[in-house]
Amino acid sequence: MGGRWITQRCRSDGGEPASEPPTRTHCGLPRPPPSYNGNKPRAHERNLLPFLHLSFPDPRLRFSLLESAAREIGRRRSRRRSQRPAALTPPPRVLLRSLPTRVGGAALRTRRPPDTLGPRAGAANAVCCRSSAEAEFFTDYGDANRYKIQEVIGKGSYGVVCSAIDLHARQRVAIKKIHNIFEHVSDAARILREIKLLRLLRHPDIVEIKHIMLPPSRKDFKDIYVVFELMESDLHQVIKANDDLTEEHYQFFLYQLLRALKYIHTANVYHRDLKPKNILANSNCKLKICDFGLARVSFNDTPTTVFWTDYVATRWYRAPELCGSFFSKVRNEKARRYLSSMRKKDPVPFSQKFPNADPLALKLLEKLLAFDPKDRPTAEEALRDPYFKGLARVEREPSCQPIKKAEFDFEHKRMSKEEIRELIFREILEYHPQLLNSYINGTERTTFLYPSAVDQFKKQFSHLEESGGNGPSVPMDRKHASLPRTTVVHSNPIPAKEQPLAASSRVRPVSDDSCKNPWEKERGPGNVPRAALPPQGLQAQAGPGRVNGSVMNSGYPSHQQIPQAYGYHQMPARLDSTNQSQAMGGYTLHSQAHACANSKGTADVAVNMRATPFHVPAGPKNNLLDRIASGTDIYTRSLNGIVAAAAASVGTGTGTHRNVGVVPSGMSRMY
Ligand SMILES: Nc1ncnc2c1ncn2[C@@H]1O[C@H](COP(=O)(O)OP(=O)(O)OP(=O)(O)O)[C@@H](O)[C@H]1O
């Protein structure tokens, strides 16, 4: 059967009867009904579809779980509907108009951020927006004053996602507000599952939760705020905006996704909703898988029922066995009859279908599209494919220890709202180690955990309101707020992870203790206080969530090591008025600085790749493997300047992509 899928009717998410037109035969790409306007794959996206099937488990595992995915998806839909008129409507996403400079390769065009906080937007306007938006967004969450929200960047059925500045870590972050999480216990379980998995799965190609804000009350909180590393876009947008992706792009995208999948699957976790929208992307080609809400962990003693229902995965990305409900062969008699009544068609060779594609890519494609899941390679096997020769060395790709069953006990119990609330609260405490200790020792307070911080936050707002949005948005009792950054010596250095380029700077960052949760210590990834973390080389021995391989030693980019496309340069202490409007408390975007340097008022500016402003790890990189092992190198060299070119796409005079990070002068006084 390998290699070709056959004509069949496919059910939709909602289980609509087969009133849709028959789906197409070739490559297993279901043809959407003509009336469908939803999130269907674009022509370019289809190139990635075969790969996405790898999200499904290796059928040899023969495990399964019974689940109520149908109800879950139904609820997702109704949540999405009920969110439509929400106060925080995302601004329209406009794609970058200007073509980035080409230096032997195309830069990725990502979404162009709106101008609300760009230099052309007035400070007052920005402050006003922040005021109402933040009031709406944060309500009374204690550590909220650590974050300054900027704009809405995404919306899902469970939450609104805003970009924000973490004043403490001096990084831009994405904050997802998941509201009313206890309306349905199963929604709450989904959220618990997602935040747990993202804590346990730590990999450079999986989005990282940096923090979860502490709710004001343990017993009756309704919303949670999850702080993620900020990504610029998602693969769906990237594919839409770039019709000139090159072979290197495809190769590198697939490579990243496969190594992420290898890691996820070795933890016995199955994402089950992989699609371009759930793969976040940066213009430097970095991809990260997100949205683990539908994911499941499999355990050996799981009863053998049906793991994969036809409600799993968004319809356009389902493997054929899911479309036809015939995972572990075609068991359904009706489906079997229907399939065998179909006319057999000779396959169109891929080389004919995609004449310009790399023959190795086509071979891999053929394997990935095997009709029988048994014939498809696992993620690890796919990484060994000759298509990735020189790029991947499988033994160096990290794997994960299987996740402990105890972590997911809740999946098998009937939970009350109160119980699941308690579990979510407990999970939140993983990001508040001191409180976690008190909780474990039974000495924590149950309500209003940090009134002073709430107070601070409220004061900020009333201050903004009183000054009509024009004044400095700094409450009076923030001690260091008005001091120039360079005059204050940091008494409690920000860890390396949280100050991307600080090591190379002569300017020392300011301690902004008022922004900190006073209970909190610095912590490392997951739930481990930073000081308690073993040296990186030792982390390979740790349990779930720890890289279990030589990745750390091999120079493989860890979360912390991968420079973000919008990392910050520190600025000199003295800022003229222009710089002031572009600086963020002494930090400004690399790319912006670079763009300024290169800007000639036109999009087509030559970029000297060797002079890229992005971090390039020291030492020569002799082979492709080294280049891939170093996140920045692959972007800046193998992909021929995609990052720098993206950075250089600014400077058109129309406002720029990079200006998203610019904070108006009113805000820079916040620090
Ligand atoms: N870390 C991030 N950086 C940038 N954008 C993000 C980030 N996380 C999420 N987004 C954006 O927000 C959108 C919604 O996020 P997400 O998919 O996590 O929400 P959800 O409610 O779980 O969605 P779904 O309806 O698919 O379940 C994403 O499609 C993405 O565009």
From TrEMBL:
Keywords linked to the UniProt accession: ATP-binding, Kinase, Nucleotide-binding, Serine/threonine-protein kinase, Transferase
Molecular function in Gene Ontology: ATP binding; MAP kinase activity
Domain of life: Eukaryota
Span of domain Protein kinase: 147-388
Disordered as annotated region, ranges: 1-43, 72-91, 499-533
Gene3D superfamilies, sorted: Phosphorylase Kinase, domain 1, Transferase(Phosphotransferase) domain 1
InterPro entries: Kinase-like_dom_sf, MAP_kinase_CS, MAPK, Prot_kinase_dom, Protein_kinase_ATP_BS
Residues reported to bind ATP: K177
SUPFAM superfamilies to which the protein is assigned, alphabetical: Protein kinase-like (PK-like)
Residue spans of biased composition, Basic and acidic residues class: 509-524
UniProt similarity note: Belongs to the protein kinase superfamily. CMGC Ser/Thr protein kinase family. MAP kinase subfamily.
Name of protein: Mitogen-activated protein kinase 10
Source organism per UniProt: Panicum miliaceum
